[in-house]
Design goal:
alpha+beta; 3 helices
Length: about 140
């Protein structure tokens, strides 16, 4: 029980709620973060939180049985950002059966950083028709 009443949900749900408010710039945490950071730094925070949230979306889609598409990693570039000590990277991928490369900014596990030439999995992004989400290498850590 909190000081001013009972809080619903567990700590992880509460943290995800706060992260969403920070990314949107709404609520107390979002307004304070936007006030103390410059526009460029606030945009970087929004991108990092977006990468974190896309990881949760991928896990939900995989659990629901969404089809995956194999792709070959062409290149990987570090953005210099970390979320929970895992790097946020830019990936250039070549999906099988296409000639157009796909570029993604995503969170990867520091224990399973893909290398150029590795085969990875993509999932169609339901929020962006024609877009993809990075689904890892298909091996559970």
């Amino acid at each position: 029980m909190g000081i001013f009443g009972k809080r619903g949900g567990n700590r992880e749900e509460r943290a995800a709620e706060i992260a969403g408010k920070v990314a949107s710039g709404k609520g107390f945490y979002g307004r304070v973060t936007r006030a103390f950071l410059g526009q460029e730094d606030f945009a970087a925070v929004q991108q990092s939180i977006g990468a974190y949230e896309s990881g949760h979306e991928v896990q939900r889609l995989l659990a629901a049985g969404a089809p995956t598409l194999p792709a070959v990693l062409v290149s990987i570039t570090d953005t210099g950002r970390l979320v929970n000590h895992d790097p946020v990277v830019d990936l250039v991928l070549q999906p099988s059966g296409t000639t157009v490369p796909v570029t993604l900014r995503t969170l990867v596990s520091k224990l399973r950083v893909p290398r150029p030439g590795d085969q990875v999995l993509l999932i169609a992004d339901p929020a962006r028709p024609g877009g993809y989400l990075y689904a890892g290498d298909g091996v559970n850590p």
